Amino acid sequence: MSTGGPSPDKSFANAQPARVGVFGGAFDPPHWAHRALAEAALSQLGLDVLHILPTGQAWHKSRVLTPAEHRLAMCELAFGDLPRTRLDAREIHRQGPSYTADTLRELAGEYPGAKLFLVLGADQLLAFKGWVRWPEVLAQATLAVANRATNIGADGALDQVQEMDLSAVDLPFERLQMPLKNISATAVRARVERPVSRSGALDVLVPEAVAGYISHNSLYQIHS
6 to each of 94, 105, 112, how far by Cα in Å? Predict the structure, then answer.
């Protein structure tokens, strides 16, 4: 995985990428559902490159995010071995609130003529019209959406089979097919926070390297 803007590495030496994916989120932490969604997008959309974009100043989050250096490091561990991915820190470095419309405008300038795909989970699609300048986002990128289980909270069962109902969504989007993974960052943080579950297998929810990073850096633990 490379980091940042356009890169001279060998994978893009012969041709300008024509199909560019954008996968943003807090990634606090990145988990197996994030990984599966990235894999589905790369395969099913035929992407030349997929930008992994950890959120900077998240205007829509009520809680304080884990420091950016930790989230970047965990993204490198979660996605670093996937081909055609690029860890992109631009939203973290951007001053003030970070909006997807601005990121897409920048990427359109960096990849002239490319088709942009915004990779989302179904929960984000259902909230899409609450995004800042969402019509601008829709004009710049094709939405590529994977469904999620109806209950993705901290107490949701991992083996759920009921998907979110997207039948009333009046937005154009492409559906990504991937196994339903009822994993959320909220659930990961809750497992670490609860003393009774700290001995549980965190790598059921996150890649083993991410689990090790969380433990080594004492992330998400409640300190008395």
Answer: 17, 15, 12
